[in-house]
Amino acid sequence: MDKKNSCDDPCPIARSLALVGDAWSMLILRDAHAGLTRFDQFRKSLGIAPTMLTRRLAALTEEGLLEKRRYSAHPPRDEYVLTAAGIDFLPVLFMIGAWGRQHRGGGKMVRFLDAETGSEIRPIAVDEVTGARIGTRPIRLVTPE
């Protein structure tokens, strides 16, 4: 998907995928939510090539999901922390994970626990207006005029 063309697409799904539609970006955001902030931490966790990681961190920073902060002046070192937009992406990651557990499960899988209660997080998507679970009612797409 071409990022420049998709950003003008009237569909919010297409616009979002233009930014975070690759696996590396989503996994970086997952790890940032788990508390990782430094380049070497991301590289070790993901096994990603340094050049690829540099590009993804720059894109996520440029698009406002991560913020780059200097934590050492000598030598100069930066860390990457979630912005409000990055924090708001966590439910999306959890819904992808829930789908994966249901449709791509099997074998040992990571579990996500609520840090306060210790209970497993089991996300569902609910329409705020109707209270219905998303996917249980028909949808209609309305294109802008």
Q: CA-to-CA gap between the ends?
A: 24 Å
The count of helical stretches stands at: 7
Strand-pairing-aware structural class = mainly alpha
The biggest beta sheet, please? Answer: 2 strands, antiparallel
Mean pLDDT: 92
Uncertain residue segments: 1-5
Any idea what the shape is? globular
Strand arrangement within the widest β-sheet reads 1-2
Layout: helices, strands, pairs:
Layout (H helix, E strand, L loop, with lengths): L2 H4 L5 H9 L2 H11 L5 H8 L3 H13 L3 E7 L4 E6 L1 H4 L2 H14 L42
Antiparallel strand pairs: 1-2
Task: Note down, in words, how this protein is organized.
This protein is mostly helical. 43% of the residues lie in helices and 9% in strands. It has helices at residues 3-6, 12-20, 23-33, 39-46, 50-62, 84-87, 90-103, and strands at residues 66-72, 77-82. A two-stranded antiparallel ribbon has the order 1-2. Strand 1 (66-72) and strand 2 form a beta hairpin. The two termini are 24 Å apart.
Based on the model shown, name its key terms:
single chain, 145 residues, mainly alpha, two-stranded antiparallel ribbon, 7 helices, 2 strands, 43% helix, globular
Task: Write a concise synopsis of the structure shown.
The chain has 145 residues and is mainly α. It is 43% helix and 9% strand.
